[in-house]
């Protein structure tokens, strides 16, 4: 059987930017695929596969997951830390049950999105507006580039927003993430939560951005005055990450 692998973030530098087809024996698992890839890579590059998550057909999968012919396997390094109406024909969005999520290549109009999220029922609206700063760890930043596994990212953002709405008894949750080239001072991610009570809104907004940075497949490349680098992401939660020991055992 043959599966298609799609690398993201720093893994594109190791495996190439384009999807590739890999032939595997029938009944092979994700762990078998990862071992096949490790054997073909230099040791430094192979080590990166020890801290990734894997998706199969845009859903997170464990090492023991059995692959089928034609599956699309995403190789996901730790992610960056990604009614909303994104402009542009290539943008994706979802709006249901007082939840709005979007990925957009256009500038985020924070003032408009916040105004659309408000309602007379609300006692509080809390906003996280993540903006591009001009420095990181003592290096002058020129701009950022964000990329996403878009189909999967929208699905994960929608699930995150729905969980937040239920967990914190919110009326409205809006998450908008920018993709592509972003300049200094521009918004990269906007989160708006509306609730009858301020404590729930504050807690929910913090929980949403922290969880998004760990689970939504969006990656950031920083370009400095003296070079460029993919930003190291936060480790995946244990229920998502595929540890080297687990992959070896399942393989």
The radius of gyration is 19 Å
How far apart, in Å, are the first and last alpha carbons?
17 Å
* Uncertain stretches: 82-91
Largest sheet: 5 strands, mixed
Supply the number of helical segments: 7
Annotated CATH architecture of the largest domain: Alpha-Beta Complex
Which strand order spans the largest sheet, edge to edge or round the barrel? Answer: 2-1-5-3-4
Q: Tell me the overall shape.
A: globular
CATH topology of the largest domain: the name is Aldehyde Oxidoreductase, domain 3
> Which structural class do you get from the secondary structure elements?
alpha+beta
Name the beta content range.
25-35%
What is the CATH superfamily classification of the largest domain?
A: Molybdopterin biosynthesis MoaE subunit
Description:
The chain has 251 residues and is α+β, with helices and mostly antiparallel strands. It has two domains: 2-77 and 236-250, Beta-grasp domain (Ubiquitin-like (UB roll), Roll), CATH 3.10.20; 92-230, Aldehyde Oxidoreductase, domain 3 (Alpha-Beta Complex). Helix content is 29%, strand content 33%. The protein has helices spanning 11-15, 30-40, 43-48, 110-117, 150-167, 198-215, 244-250; strands at 2-7, 20-23, 53-56, 59-61, 72-76, 92-96, 99-104, 124-131, 135-136, 139-148, 172-178, 180-183, 187-195, 218-224, 227-230. It has a five-stranded mixed β-sheet. A five-stranded mixed β-sheet has the order 6-7-11-13-8, with helices on both faces. Strands 9, 10, 12, 14 and 15 form a five-stranded antiparallel β-sheet that branches. Helix 2 (30-40) packs across helix 7 and helix 5 (150-167) packs antiparallel against helix 6. The chain is globular.
């Amino acid at each position: 059987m043959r599966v298609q692998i799609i690398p993201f973030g720093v893994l594109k530098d190791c495996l190439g930017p384009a999807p590739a087809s890999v032939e595997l024996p029938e009944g092979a698992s994700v762990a078998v695929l990862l071992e096949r890839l490790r054997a073909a890579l230099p040791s430094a590059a192979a080590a990166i596969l020890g801290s990734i998550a894997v998706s199969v057909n845009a859903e997170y999968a464990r090492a023991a997951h059995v692959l089928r012919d034609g599956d699309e396997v995403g190789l996901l390094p730790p992610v960056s830390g990604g009614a909303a109406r994104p402009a542009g024909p290539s943008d994706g969005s979802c709006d249901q049950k007082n939840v709005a999520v979007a990925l957009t290549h256009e500038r985020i109009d924070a003032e408009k999105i916040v105004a659309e999220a408000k309602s007379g029922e609300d006692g509080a609206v809390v906003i996280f507006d993540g903006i591009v700063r001009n420095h990181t760890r003592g290096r002058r930043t020129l701009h950022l580039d964000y990329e996403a596994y878009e189909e999967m990212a929208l699905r994960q953002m929608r699930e995150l927003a729905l969980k937040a709405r239920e967990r914190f008894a919110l009326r409205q949750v809006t998450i908008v993430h920018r993709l592509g080239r972003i300049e200094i001072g521009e918004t990269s991610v906007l989160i708006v939560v509306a609730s009858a009570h301020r404590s729930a809104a504050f807690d929910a907004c913090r929980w949403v951005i922290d969880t998004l940075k760990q689970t939504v497949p969006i990656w950031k490349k920083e370009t400095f005055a003296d070079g460029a680098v993919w930003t190291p992401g936060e480790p995946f939660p244990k229920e998502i990450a595929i540890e080297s020991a687990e992959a070896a055992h399942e393989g």
